[in-house]
Design brief:
The chain has 348 residues and is an all-alpha fold. It has helices at 2-17, 36-74, 113-140, 145-176, 186-195, 207-211, 220-230, 235-258, 267-274, 281-285, 304-310, 312-324, 329-333, 335-342.
């Protein structure tokens, strides 16, 4: 508007300055010089026009910079709160088809020698600790093989169930709380939360690439400390927690199998899933339904029904909210779930 007004003023000035000569034909080669007042006014109009143009350019640049900064600030990295499930504004995009989607900076689908070394050393050490625990029990029973075998099998079976419960609690906690900056568990949290944007990505990972991150919390230092504290006189305690840690590491591979078709997995895997020994495809698929508020256990899934029907995780979320005011990600996805939980209605 300012620019058009200036142009109109310029036109009116030029017309008025030549009003007396508008109907007088000039002589050949005659130059009509504008008056001094007209030149001054013309210069003023030109200066104002240039100022208006510069002002408009500056305003456009400011607007462009604001838009760029707004977009940049809305894009979250894997270390930020809100980086969850590939939702709008999370910094993640859900890829089309079944393309792999790497969500953690520096992560890769390629198996490295470092990953192989960590996993191999961890499993070798755990096998030695388990064998030593069984040997201690054999010694304590004066070489009674049946008693040693039965006690060891019972301990391993109970540890397997406990590991399923443990995997559910771990899965629930990293799905709902923390971010990539959380100490020790940051990368695991970001990987679990980002997993919901492209669940099939896990099927592209090799064994060591898939499980090595869990060797950090459940690896050699943890198992060694437990065995030291338990001592040889509590050999079954050592065996229980050694197998527990092994199962927690393996849970990620069992998790991967639940995202693969029967044609993609070995026959033994399909048999284990059919028997309910490892987490099946259908039970785990129920977890991948927004707001991702149940079916967290990924070892065998045997604990899922009891945990969900009892409302255990909603009760935990309510207690955490009362203590520090932090809401679970499931609440953020489903306001009705939040309202029900705050009313004490915990069962799914």
């Amino acid at each position: 508007m300012k620019l058009s007004s200036a142009i109109a003023l310029l036109a009116a000035t030029i017309l008025s300055s030549h009003e007396s000569t508008a109907f007088t034909a000039p002589r050949a080669h005659q130059f009509i010089a504008p008056s001094r007042g007209c030149s001054s006014l013309l210069s003023t109009v030109v200066d104002e026009t240039e100022a208006i143009i510069k002002q408009q350019v500056t305003e456009e640049q400011i607007q462009e910079n604001y838009i760029s900064e707004t977009v940049a600030n809305s894009q979250k990295s894997f270390k930020d709160d809100g980086f969850v499930f590939g939702l709008e504004g999370s910094g993640l995009e859900r890829p089309k088809g079944k393309d792999a989607n790497i969500v953690v900076e520096g992560d890769s689908l390629e198996t490295t020698p470092k990953q192989v070394a960590i996993v191999s050393a961890t499993f070798a050490a755990q096998a030695l600790f388990a064998a030593n625990a069984i040997h201690d029990l054999y010694t304590q029973t004066d070489g009674n093989v049946p008693v040693t075998a039965l006690a060891s099998l019972a301990t391993i079976a109970s540890s397997w169930v406990a590991a399923d419960l443990g995997s559910g609690i771990l899965h629930w906690s990293v799905d709902n709380y923390g971010n990539g900056r959380t100490p020790i568990m940051g990368n695991i949290i970001a990987a679990f939360q980002g997993h919901h944007s492209a669940p099939w990505t896990i099927t592209y990972r090799g064994f060591c690439n898939n499980v090595w991150k869990l060797c950090i919390p459940f690896g050699i230092p943890t198992v060694a400390a437990i065995n030291f504290l338990a001592g040889p006189e509590h050999s079954m305690v050592s065996l229980f927690f050694t197998f527990f840690c092994f199962s927690e590491i393996m849970s990620q591979e069992l998790h991967k199998w639940s995202h693969m078709t029967k044609k993609e997995t070995p026959a033994i895997v399909n048999t284990l899933q059919d028997l309910g020994i490892t987490i099946g495809r259908v039970p785990h698929a129920q977890h991948h339904m927004a707001p991702y508020d149940g079916n967290y256990c990924i070892v065998s899934g045997v604990c899922n029904k009891a945990l969900d029907n009892s409302g255990f995780f909603r009760w935990m979320e309510h207690r955490i909210y009362e203590m520090n005011g932090v809401e679970s990600n499931a609440w953020k996805l489903d306001p009705e779930l939040r309202a029900k939980t705050l009313r004490g209605e915990y069962r799914l």
